[in-house]
Model the fold of this input.
Amino acid sequence: MVGVRKHRSDRGIAVRPAATLRATAAFAVLALGLHAPAHASFLSGEALDTAADVIAWVALVIVPVVGIVGFWLVHILPEKIAEQKRHPQAKAIQVLCLLSLVFGGMLWPIAWLWAYSKPVLHKMAYGTDVGEHEAPSESGEAPDGTLPVLTAEAEVPVHARQAQPARAAKQGG
Done:
């Protein structure tokens, strides 16, 4: 079998003899001639049209809605974290989250870092690093059990236990 061995050309690249190339070409032509028709879909006719309509509606309506809701939920995470940690600048973080929605999410990492940061300057100025932004209960009491009382000078917190006898006296008298 003299024609089967590989020969080296001058450049060091292996060259196949003509007989091997002819056999490969014949096999390729034979494989192309014996092909079966391809069926790319398991659906046909009206079922294929219905499936295409459903996929189109999903792609055009449901995917954008889910994408927008997901984008919004991710962008309000810093705001929720700031409220949970009682961050004193939670309202400013909320504004930054809204601005981040407008600017395509570019400000979102800043809001995320701000929500997790410790408000050092706030603690130096006010003596605490937590905010007082909890909503009052239905009875009007603050979470610490005080009621706001308006006076001529300012709003003075009065404990609910002290205010109850005064309410009973007003209702009874």
In short: The longest helix spans residues 46-75. Residues 72-129 form one domain. The first strand starts at residue 7 and ends at 8.
